[in-house]
Design goal:
Radius of gyration of chain A: 13 Å
Number of helices of chain B: 0
Strand content of chain A: over 45%
Order of helices and strands of chain A: EEEEEEEEEEE
Radius of gyration of chain B: 13 Å
Order of helices and strands of chain B: EEEEEEEEEEE
Number of helices of chain A: 0
Structural class of chain A: mainly beta
Shape of chain A: globular
Strand content of chain B: over 45%
Distance between the termini of chain B: 37 Å
Largest interface: A-B, 24 and 20 residues
Shape of chain B: globular
Oligomer: heterodimer
Number of strands of chain A: 11
Helix content of chain A: under 10%
Largest sheet of chain A: 7 strands, mixed
Number of strands of chain B: 11
Largest sheet of chain B: 6 strands, mixed
Distance between the termini of chain A: 37 Å
Chain lengths: 113, 111
């Protein structure tokens, strides 16, 4: 059974703080993804990684960075949190093969005040 | 034009009826198609994947793909109140690992 875990379910941070969101998967997946989900806008891809130390920008990378030092772990970093980054953040992972099913973690509800 | 379009609903069906959810996509080279169910406050859960034209059945769920029309659908037979959720359609082009998601269709099954 695929398991993707995220470090926090709920997080409250202040404007300007540096925020780290962690994601860990236990299925030896090559690909890992960070999305944010907002009402009316759906899921939007922030960054993805297809290998250790490799990363690709998604549709909305501004204000975010990522780190993947180990295959199972993918971190999202908000360098200086702003109120417009209040959102649900979802991590997902998948194999890099013709079977590309993505599996999601439980999500982190981040509020920036 | 959005990559993936879904009718946002809400779609309401009585318990025991067939719920039909539809999705269109813009890029003809898209290769892989997925349906996710998302309960309020929860993360998306994969329920079906389909890669070739035609129908794919899994229990009460049937996914249908028509690449010529760039159309994917999900049928839920014998709908139950527990099926009430938002259903997300996702598409992968096959040229990379990026998925494109629709904004979801909200389904309510009325007991």
């Amino acid at each position: 059974d695929v398991k993707v875990t995220q470090s926090s379910r709920y997080l409250v941070k202040r404007t300007g703080e540096k925020v780290f969101l962690e994601c860990v998967q236990d299925m030896d997946h090559e690909n890992m993804f960070w999305y944010r989900q907002d009402p009316g806008l759906g899921l939007r891809l922030i960054y993805f990684s297809y290998d250790v130390k490799m990363k690709e920008k998604g549709d909305i990378p501004e204000g975010y960075s990522v780190s993947r030092e180990k295959k199972e772990r993918f971190s999202l970093i908000l360098e200086s949190a702003s109120t417009n980054q209040t959102s649900m953040y979802l991590c997902a992972s998948s194999h890099a093969s013709e079977v590309l099913e993505q599996y999601f973690g439980p999500g982190t509800r981040l509020t920036v005040t | 034009q959005k990559e993936v379009e879904q009718n946002s609903g809400p779609l309401s069906v009585p318990e025991g009826a067939i719920a039909s959810l539809n999705c269109t996509y813009s890029d003809r080279v898209s290769q892989s198609f997925f349906w996710y169910r998302q309960y309020s406050g929860k993360s998306p859960e994969l329920i079906m994947s389909i890669y070739s034209n035609g129908d794919k059945e899994d229990g009460r769920f049937t996914a249908q793909l028509n690449k010529a029309s760039q159309y994917v659908s999900l049928l839920i037979r014998d709908s139950q109140p527990s099926d009430s959720a938002t259903y997300l359609c996702a598409v992968n082009r096959g040229t990379g690992n990026q998925f494109y998601f629709g904004t979801g269709t909200s389904l309510t099954v009325i007991p």
